[in-house]
Specification:
Length: 268
């Protein structure tokens, strides 16, 4: 939803229409297995070849690894999602990437995501929330994109200095929806990580067992993972709150407490 919103907003609906692949317009800048696990500056410069202007760079890296300051030439649009729903989505993706045979038990998966990893959801949210008052940082929430999309589009358009008329606003709202994506976005080419991923029924077509295109309508309409229980949900929310308050204490700030107060549904 975030990628589609930005592509259509910046192009005013001119790019990514029928047979759309948003990854042709948005450059992914992520960790790799190279030195320090970071992409090189050269790979980042490749984003200038993408047609979206200004260029859009997508990343899941925490703020500490990015030049997020008021002196940066870039703007940072941060999308934060409910911690339970974020883990539920990751669980579905894990099923897709490694298959049901090799994936971890759900309790172990939650433990790694919430306690073992050095930078989890709470770390990301806390780092970016501390930067929320910078003029080139804008934080939006995934749930708001679903429940009040028009307002979010207007806020983002103002943030990136793009003027949209009423017709263009409605167009962006329509094209950032899941329904529009299923009808117009091309399936991506993937490489299986294991012999068990993904299950054959969500493959649209493949040149081999290891390379395939996902049938997105089946993938997004099928329950591919166990649901997080109410007990597990309470654990996730409690751990997220405790981690954010611990970060406050370690960094001598109250930004985390402010975040908890601003999004109470994430923690209760």
């Amino acid at each position: 939803a975030g990628m589609l919103m930005l592509v259509h907003l910046l192009s005013k609906g001119e790019l990514c229409q029928e047979g759309c692949d948003p990854h042709k317009f948005v450059y992914a800048f992520e960790f790799d297995n190279g030195k320090n696990g970071m992409m090189s500056a050269t790979s980042l410069s490749n984003s200038s070849n993408y047609p979206t202007q200004p260029r859009v760079i997508m990343t899941h890296m925490p703020a500490v690894h990015l030049d997020a300051s008021e002196h940066s030439k870039g703007k940072y649009l941060i999308i934060i999602r409910d911690p339970v729903q974020q883990l539920q989505s990751l669980r579905t993706m894990e099923f897709f990437m490694v298959g049901h045979i090799l994936r971890l038990p759900l309790d172990a998966f939650i433990t790694i995501a919430t306690e073992t990893r050095k930078t989890g959801w709470a770390d990301h949210a806390h780092q970016w929330w501390r930067l929320r008052n910078l003029p080139n940082v804008k934080i939006i929430f995934y749930e708001d994109m679903q429940h009040r999309p028009l307002e979010v589009v207007q806020e983002v358009a103002q943030f990136v200095d793009v003027q949209l008329n009423d017709k263009q606003l409605q167009l962006v709202r329509e094209r950032m929806s899941k329904k529009w994506a299923l009808e117009h976005v091309d399936g991506q080419q993937y490489q299986a990580l294991t012999p068990f991923s993904p299950p054959p029924f969500i493959r649209e077509k493949s040149g081999s067992m290891s390379h395939f295109i996902v049938d997105q309508s089946k993938f997004f309409s099928t329950d591919l993972s166990e649901k997080i229980s109410s007990e597990q949900e309470s654990r996730i929310r409690s751990l997220a709150k405790a981690k954010i308050l611990a970060l406050d204490k370690a960094q001598d700030t109250t930004d985390g407490a402010n975040f908890i107060q601003s999004r109470p549904s994430y923690f209760h």
